[in-house]
Amino acid sequence: MLVALLTAVVTLLLRQRVRARVVVSVAGGLGYALAVAALCWQVVLAPDAPGIATYQVGDWPAPYGITLVADGLSAFMLAMVATVAAAATVFSARYVPSSERRTFYHPLFHFLLLGVTGSFLTGDLFNLFVWFEVMLMTSYVFVAFYGGPLHTRAAFWYVSLNLVASAVFLLAVGGLYATVGTLNMADMARRLAEPAAYGIDTRPTVGLLALLLSVFALKAGLVPFQFWIPTAYRAAPPPVTALLAAASKKVGIYAIVRVSFTVFADAAVVVRLPGIEPTTPLAFVGAVLFVMATGSILVGGLGAIDRDSLEGVLAYSSIGQVGFIAVPVAVAATTTAPGLRRFAILAALVYALNHSLAKGLLFLAAGTVRHATGTIRFDGLGGLARHFPTLSGTFLLGALSLVGIPPLSGFFGKFLVFDAAVRADASAVIALLLVGSLLTIAYATRAWNRGFWGARSPTVEDATIDPVQVAVLVALATVILAVGVGFDPIYRFADAAAGAALDAETYVDAVAPRGGESG
Amino acid sequence: MTAFVLAVAVGALFALGTFLILQRELIRVVWGLVIVSQAANVYLLAMGEIVPGSFESVPVLAGHGEPGSGTTDPLVQALVLTAIVIGFGMTAFALVLSYRVYEEHDTLDVTKLGDRE
Lengths: 519, 117
Prior knowledge:
Chain B: InterPro entries: CPA3_antiporter_subunitC, NUOK/Mnh_C1-like. Chain B: This is Sodium:proton antiporter. Chain B: Its main location: membrane. Chain B: Pfam families: Oxidored_q2 (PF00420). The complex is a heterodimer of chains A (about 525) and B (about 120). Chain A has helices at about 5-15, 20-45, 70-95, 105-120, 125-145, 150-180, 185-195, 195-200, 205-220, 230-235, 240-265, 280-305, 310-335, 340-375, 385, 390-405, 410-425, 425-450, 460, 465-485, 485-500, 505-510, and strands at about 50-55, 65-70. By secondary structure, chain A is an all-alpha fold. The two termini of chain A are about 30 Å apart. By secondary structure, chain B is mainly alpha-helical. Chain B contains three helices and two strands. Chain B has helices at about 1-20, 25-45, 75-105; strands spanning about 50, 70. Chain B has a two-stranded antiparallel ribbon. The interface of A and B includes residues 130, 150, 155 and 159 of A.
């Protein structure tokens, strides 16, 4: 299972010549996808799969050593990221100019991938922090990549925000260590389940959980932590933005799911807030997430309608879509019925998959448009549909998938999310989802009308298009279509992932921490 | 006593850092970020305590005869070391970045950054 990490690192070591590096980078991207596929097969999909695999780094037993854990949830997330990452590496081989100043693009790209992979696989809270930093540091560089005034400004906000978030994360980690006495997530889950046996004072954990939530929500870009997204996404190179939208945000979501459902699910902790009935941490998470998701869907949707550039629309729509992922997670956290909880997580995962694929495709398409015409503002575009039918077709497909038209992957995502809301019998949630969907339709239509239909502008008339980039787009679009048409295996994979997310017991047993009195 | 001093120190550092982050001058913001992350480090350090040394908490000792009478919590120290290294890298990056901002915008005043695009 470490092949995934190794591929990324080896790619980095072989970075001598510019041309060779591009080749190695693409090979590394594809190799990464293969490694992840192998991992998924071994852990989840194979007939006699164990469902979970652990690796104790340096053979130190948990909870002393660093544990890497791959269960269904990690595998599902990784598979999602790998698909987009492979496409993005091929794409960027043609997109990024290989001049002297840009030489660090490919190594950095793989470091970003490495950080994301690490975050998904680590079984230890502090290592999650370290992997976050690995991921963030490279993304800082990418946001500042073009080095213009706009980019430096965006990068400075991004860096400042994330540094504060890192400090907060450290606080939460330190506090949890002091109260619970371990950093290993499995060990933590076990100790929190019976705090009395380990002499744990549970009162501070709720506040610390809230701190963690705020950090993860910042990474995921949920309202009220969404404000860095539009500028940062516009500043980064499109292939990276595709990966940021597809991967980094999902790391935030993954962390929320992992921490709330694996670590705090069975925790015998009571949340006491002024004015509210005492409740469990999960219900607390659910309520907070729901408020955040509501804000995200509204702010993202309304913001996206108002943008005047392709990437602006996509960035705001990202905010809204993350809200859609958060809603079923909130439903899962609030409900007490295990069946519904599993189903809601499943819905969130499928929706996340759809969002990754569709948004990756859309950002890459926007990148192609910019590469070809030099602009992504709507007033400079128009008539793309007739001039570049293939490119426009893939964009349309991505947009339709976001809206949720069958037989694309988006249909099942939307359908399952709605189904989860209906099963939870929450009319407020359903209303929210309806409003969000209408907003999605509105901004997708508007982007399409202004950018792709209408009279051809002179820039579009003169533009030429890169065939490799379009090929990548077509490949991604095919994947979306394939996921939609052959949905059954995906459903089973997601179901296994949802099961793994909720099965804290197996997770704890697999990591098998010994009850050391460390600290 | 130590706990009290540490608590006051952490609190003061956080207050100072937050104050600096809210300033208009970019360099001060960077300083504020540095101070906040140092405050987090001090806090982390304060989370550990001195415990009787045992093979359980310090497994390395198992190969070296008797454990000492008291050891600090090694895990916390490792965490802080890691955090310091990361913080150091981030500080350098933030400073370089603010230099680039100065080059591109001819100003370090946050409120004037938005004028030129």
